[in-house]
Amino acid sequence: MKEFYMGIRITGTGLYHPAESISNEELVESLNAYVEYYNAENAEKIAAGELPERLGSSAEFIEKASGIKSRYVIEKSGVLDPQRLRPRLQERTDDELSIQAEWGVLAAKQAMENAKVTAEDIDVVILACSNMQRPYPAVAVEIQSALGIQGYAYDMNVACSAATFGLKQAYDAIQSGARRVLLVNVEITSGHTDYRSRDCHFIFGDVATASIIEQTDTKTGFEILNIHLFTQFSNNIRNNFGFLNRSEDATRDDKQFRQDGRKVFKDVCPLVAKIITAQLEKNQVNPQDIKRFWLHQANLNMNQLIAKLVLGKEAEAERTPIILDEFANTSSAGVIIALHRTGEEVSEGEFGVICSFGAGYSVGSLLVQKRVA
Ligand code: CO8
C-alpha cells in the first residue's frame, strides 16, 4: 500500500427518510394532467410559436433511462397536485427547529447509536448537501445545538459530491486534532425540482444521512486509506437560484435544477472510471479486489458502465449496490445510503470504494478497508 493514512474510520452511519413515497406511475399521471391543462390554456401562444408545447412523461421511459422506480418526498400531495407541483410545507418560526435540522438530528442520532458515541464525544458537525434551507445561521450549528455538541459546526455544498468532500473535511479535522466528526447530509430535493418538466421531474428524492468519523484501532468500521477529490467547471448541471435574483429582477425560468443529462452521462462516466482506476493503481489495489463500489446514485446505467470500465468486464449486481430504484437520486446522500444498507456485506480486510460525482463537475473518491474490532 503506497499511501496509508493513520487509522481514521467511518464507524457508524444513520438514515432517515420521510414516510411518503411517490411511484413513477403517480408522478407521470400528475405531470401529464398538468401538461394537458397547460397546453390547452396556452393553445394560441403555442400555435403562434410564442411558447413551447409541454411534453408528457412515461413511467416506462423513467425506469429504462434511469433505473428509478420510486422516491421519498417530504410532502406528497403538493408535489402530485397538477395545479401546484411542489411540496406543501408549513413555515416555521425562528424558535422551532428548522426542517433540515430536524431531519439531520434524526439521521445523526442513528449514526451516533451505531458508532456507540454520545454528544460529548463529538467535536465537529458538518452539514454537507446541495441545498441549504437558508444562508445563515448555518443549519449545522442548529443541529449541533439540538444534539448538545460542543466544538464547532459549519455548512458546505459541493452538490452531489458534498458527502465525499465532507468526509475529506472530517478526515482533515481529525488529523488536526478533533476527536470525532459528525457528517450530516440532508437532501430535501423536492423543494428544488421542476416537476413541470419531463426531463427532470422523476430524478430526485428526499432523505437524510449521517456518518461518524473518528480515529480508532479498536472499533469496527471502514478505514479511509486514500481520498481523491477532483473538480472541473461545467454548466451541464446548473441551478441559478440565488440571493441576487431579487436585485437582478431575474426573469429567466432557470432557478431550479436543470441539466443536459446526455452530456453529463457522456462526460462523467469515463472521468469517474479514470479517477477510480488511477486511485486503485496508485494504492496498489487490484480492481477485482474491491468488494463493493458505493457509487453516486443518479442512474443505474451510469453505475454499470463505470464499474465495467474499472473492472474491464460487466460487474456482478451486488458489487455495485443500487438504492436509487427505491430512493431516486438523493444527491450527496446516495453513496452513504448505499454504504449504510450494504456495509455489513464486507468482511475484515476487504476493500470498498465510495465515489460520488455530480454538479461542478465534482468527483470525490475514497478507498476504504473494512476493519472489524
Ligand atoms: N418521458 C418520456 N420521454 C422522455 C422523458 C420522459 N420523462 N424525458 C425525456 N424524454 C425523451 C426526450 O425528449 C428524448 O426524446 P428524443 O430522442 O425524441 O429527443 C428521449 O426521451 C431521450 O431523452 P434524454 O436524452 O434526456 O434521455 P437519457 O437517455 O439521456 O436519460 C437521464 C435521461 C436519465 C437524465 C440521463 O441522461 C442521466 O441520468 N444522465 C446523468 C445525469 C446525472 O448523473 N446527473 C447528475 C445530476 S445530480 C447533481 O449533480 C446534484 C445536483 C443538485 C441536486 C439538486 C436537487 C434538486
Automatic annotation (TrEMBL):
Pfam families listed in its UniProt record: ACP_syn_III, ACP_syn_III_C
InterPro entries the UniProt entry points to: ACP_syn_III_C, ACP_syn_III_N, Thiolase-like
EC annotation from Swiss-Prot or TrEMBL: 2.3.1.41
GO molecular function, one term: 3-oxoacyl-[acyl-carrier-protein] synthase activity
Superkingdom in the source lineage: Bacteria
Entry keyword set: Acyltransferase, Transferase
A single GO BP: secondary metabolite biosynthetic process
Enzyme class: transferase
Domain Beta-ketoacyl-[acyl-carrier-protein] synthase III C-terminal: residue ranges: 280-369
Start and end residues of each Beta-ketoacyl-[acyl-carrier-protein] synthase III N-terminal domain: 154-231
NCBIfam families, sorted: PRK07515.1
Protein name in UniProt: Putative 3-oxoacyl-[acyl-carrier-protein] synthase III
Organism: Acinetobacter baylyi (strain ATCC 33305 / BD413 / ADP1)
